[in-house]
């Protein structure tokens, strides 16, 4: 889930006073994850038809997704870097290991004024108890041998989980802002993934590409991608291009036969930056799902609502998988991610 932090900064939030990247700053922060309604009523069909099933699933899984909704004391959070680029308000936080919080010991990347979490690095464990873990369920559904592309790499959270469970897989990640890659290498151990360090003898690597992930002339691999993971946000919102049918048609052309796309569509949990064109995250999520379903009319698109306070929705292209077969192909700790999927257009 793209979770939102409320940050009580002891110094003024003034972008003209941003420190240089790489500076280590002693500071105290108080933050908590915003709590949102577990499920909201969808505004337009076909989502109203799915409401009852999604509500029941979310109620069954509500406790798991509230894990981050706990206050962290000021003295348990340190600001490691803060600066502005032409694309982002970059901030890196570290939560002390002593903190009584699921994110204890984590490093967190924030990229916008509302403070939406873009990446999490937990050196002491792999899984994050968030939507990143669902991304790691994708490989068993894909054609064998092909690489996976991540559009919206951030500091590499999804790539790290994928590499842990599927170490032979080659991953190509695109990130728009070179400063994000810089802090990812400095604070999030991204270089380890790029080097393909000895997870197995046939270990794959993460190949980092800096540039616009939707400049689709650059998103090309011989033979196509076995899978794509799309996690593209700007200013705290799913980017507008993902509400366009043409975008999904073009992304579909980048896949090898049988390939699939898994997408973070956001939801009410996403807090966009203030401005004239601010839109509710739930509406943006719905429009993204409709655009995907229209683009892949020959194959059903299915969705999974993560439930709980995050209210995040993940989408998957291709025929709805056999969930039992999918779960059996996954490590036990990932099997929850293969539950609760329902078609966006159930009658198509």
TrEMBL record:
Gene3D superfamilies xrefs: Vaccinia Virus protein VP39 (3.40.50.150)
Keywords per UniProt: Polyamine biosynthesis
SUPFAM superfamilies referenced in this protein's UniProt entry, alphabetically: S-adenosyl-L-methionine-dependent methyltransferases (SSF53335)
InterPro entries the UniProt entry points to: SAM-dependent_MTases_sf (IPR029063)
Protein name: Spermine synthase
Originating species: Sphagnum troendelagicum
Lineage: Eukaryota, Viridiplantae, Streptophyta, Embryophyta, Bryophyta
């Amino acid at each position: 889930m793209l979770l939102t932090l409320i940050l009580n900064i002891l110094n003024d939030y003034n972008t003209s006073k941003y420190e240089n990247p790489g500076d280590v700053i002693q500071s105290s922060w108080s933050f908590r994850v915003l709590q949102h309604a577990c499920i909201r009523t969808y505004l337009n069909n076909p989502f109203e038809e799915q409401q009852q099933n999604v509500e029941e699933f979310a109620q069954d899984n509500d406790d798991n997704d509230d894990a981050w909704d706990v206050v962290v004391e000021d003295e348990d959070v340190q600001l490691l870097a803060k600066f502005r680029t032409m694309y982002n308000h970059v901030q890196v936080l570290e939560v002390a290991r002593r903190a009584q919080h699921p994110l204890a010991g984590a490093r967190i990347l924030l990229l916008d004024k509302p403070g939406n979490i873009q990446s999490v690095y937990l050196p002491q464990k792999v899984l994050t108890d968030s939507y990143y873990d669902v991304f790691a369920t994708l490989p068993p559904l894909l054609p064998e041998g092909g690489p996976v592309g991540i559009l919206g790499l951030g500091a590499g959270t999804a790539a790290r989980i994928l590499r842990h469970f599927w170490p032979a897989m080659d991953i190509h990640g695109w990130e728009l802002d070179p400063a994000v890659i810089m802090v990812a290498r400095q604070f999030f151990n991204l270089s380890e993934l790029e080097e393909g360090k000895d997870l197995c003898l046939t270990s794959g690597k993460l190949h980092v590409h800096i540039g616009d992930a939707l400049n689709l002339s650059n998103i090309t691999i011989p033979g196509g991608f076995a899978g794509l993971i799309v996690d593209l946000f700007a200013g705290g919102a799913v980017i507008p291009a993902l509400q366009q049918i043409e975008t999904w048609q073009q992304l579909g052309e980048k896949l090898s036969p049988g390939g699939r796309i898994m997408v973070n569509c956001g939801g009410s949990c996403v807090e966009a930056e203030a401005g004239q064109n601010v839109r509710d995250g739930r509406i943006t999520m719905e429009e993204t799902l409709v655009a995907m379903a229209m683009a892949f009319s020959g194959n059903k698109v299915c969705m999974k609502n993560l439930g709980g306070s995050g209210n995040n929705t993940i989408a998957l292209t291709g025929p709805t998988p056999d969930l039992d077969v999918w779960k059996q192909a996954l490590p036990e700790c990932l099997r929850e991610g293969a539950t609760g999927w329902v078609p966006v257009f159930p009658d198509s």
